[in-house]
Design brief:
Elements lengths: L3 H4 L3 H19 L3 H13 L3 H27 L7 H28 L3 E7 L2 E7 L5 H4 L3 H20 L2 H4 L2 H36 L1 H26 L1
Antiparallel strand pairs: 1-2
Length: 233
Amino acid sequence: MTTEWLQHSTPLFQSALLLATGLVLGMRHAFDRDHIAAVTHFISLEPDPVKSAWFGFRWAIGHAVTVLALGSLILVLHLKFDPSFERIAELAVGVTLIALGIWRLMLLYAERRHAHVHTHRTTKHTHVHSHTPGREHVHRFAPTLVGMVHGASGTAEVFVLLPITLISTTWMAYLYIGLFSIGCAITMSTYGYVVGQFYRRANATGQRIYRTLVILTSVSGLLLGAVWILKNL
């Protein structure tokens, strides 16, 4: 009874509803634990909301590129991936999470940060400098590459959720994937901005709090990566 109204609605309305569903599902998909853990590592590098949102957006771009590439193989060439492909992709996610956790801890150890107190009229604030050479070059493309790894493991989920009625129309299926990816980008960029605010406040409060937060983030990522690998062995 609950679906009768949908069955009797116009094809245009049905398509619009399904595409809107793709957008919403993409927004939810971005909140998967492995996605959040990976992007948070990058956010902790630059405790600035705008830069953190940019990290999230770049991750979403990498995710979209892989989903689009693998999706094209399914839609255009009608290829079917062996179940072992998804398993290998999930193992790659686990390895990536562990690598990110170790990398972030190594950067934290290498950071020789010191703070200067500046006074502007009646306002005092602490300005933190980092003396780690070439940090910008280390992570310039990393969020996008990590997003591509996640996209490989997430393609199967996208097509499980993709309605059969859209698969029969290639351009509609591509539109669905596009909106799914836009949903991911909106969520992850927003997450980056909000968490970036949190990290900025922690950094302004004191280096001990900031470093403790980074350590907790890194260790949780390491543990999640280990669980991810064990789950898919």
